[in-house]
Amino acid sequence: MDTQFIRLSDGRRLAYDIYGDPNGTPAMYFHGCPSSRLEGAFWHESAQQHGVCLVTPDRPGCGLSDPKAGRTVLDFVDDIEELADHLGWHTFGVIGMSGGMPTVAACGYRIPNRITFAVDCAGWIHLLEVGQYAEDMAPMDRIFGSIATNVPFLLWLPFRVMRFILYTQGEAGFRRFFKSWASPADQREMTDDDFVAKVMGLTHESFRQGTSGAVQDAVLCFRDWGFRLAEIQVPVHIFQGEADLMVAPSFSYYAAEAIPKTTLTTYPDTGHYGLLRHSVDDVFAKIQEYTVQPAL
């Protein structure tokens, strides 16, 4: 997949890949954290079969997109609008996985007139809003959340460790690292060598410029986004594995209550990676069933 770039109005470069059907229904896919535009490869075949053109941008400082100091969740919507204009898209759908949910939510809040559908797959919600629903977070994420909320500059340490493991310890080290907070369902997914290699690749790409971009991305996931889910003006279709420890299922249950118009699909014995591997066709089927016209 050849990566493409646009030069944004402030001079930064934004990197993106195109998956699926280049002439299909326009949609943007927002990757998790830490991750990169390469995550779109998991969606390629299904997007092709369902006639969806899936554009996957790197967020600032991740992969090949230039960093932006002091950016906010809402700032990235400006980049997305510039990218859509560059592609000739007046309206488009948005899909987010895990740490991509803040951007899906921000688009639904900020530019509802341009959004034709919105999908949240096991999406993160900032801790100031989700409140007591965060009680079933994995211990590692509790630590990350506390650091991001109180002393965000220290979050570079666990991300530096993750990058070091990726660069020095290969698949065995990568598996050991993720086993510390992966559910048994996700540990089963990680027995597939090809899948592990792909996850390592997209994570490795996230750290191409170092850890700063991924750290900034994570801090923005945990802290206030500048709006509340109740202010989102488009329907959101939520998918969640109930055996997920990386993003607590309660986050999706909360989102289904807080966002004015939602559908929620859950999978009993599916974890975080299982959702990405096995439920993509369900997402596109739901999109075809419930695609909405943009708000006027």
Write up this protein.
It contains 13 helices and 8 strands. By secondary structure, it is of the alpha/beta class. It has one domain (4-290): Alpha/Beta hydrolase fold, catalytic domain (Rossmann fold, 3-Layer(aba) Sandwich). The chain has an 8-stranded mixed beta sheet with strand order 1-2-4-3-5-6-7-8, with helices on both faces. Helix 1 (44-49) links the parallel strand 3 and strand 4 (52-57). Helix 6 packs antiparallel against helix 7 (170-179). The radius of gyration is 17 Å and the shape is globular. The chain starts with a strand and ends in a 6-residue tail after the last helix.
Quick structural summary:
This protein is of the alpha/beta class.
Radius of gyration: 17 Å
CATH topology: Rossmann fold
Order of strands in the sheet with the most strands? 1-2-4-3-5-6-7-8
How large is the share of residues in beta strands?
15-25%
Q: Into which percent range does the helicity of residues fall?
A: 40-55%
The fourth-level CATH homologous superfamily is: Alpha/Beta hydrolase fold, catalytic domain
Order of helices and strands: EEEHEHEHEHHHHHHHEHEHH
Number of strands: 8
What is the overall silhouette? globular
* Low-pLDDT residue intervals, each spanning 5 or more residues: 292-296
What number of structural domains do the residues give? Answer: 1
CATH hierarchy, class: Alpha Beta
> Helix segment count?
13
Overall pLDDT confidence: 90
Main sheet overview: 8 strands, mixed
**Helix/strand/pairing class, anyone?**
alpha/beta
N-to-C span: 36 Å
Architecture per CATH nomenclature, i.e. the level-2 architecture: 3-Layer(aba) Sandwich
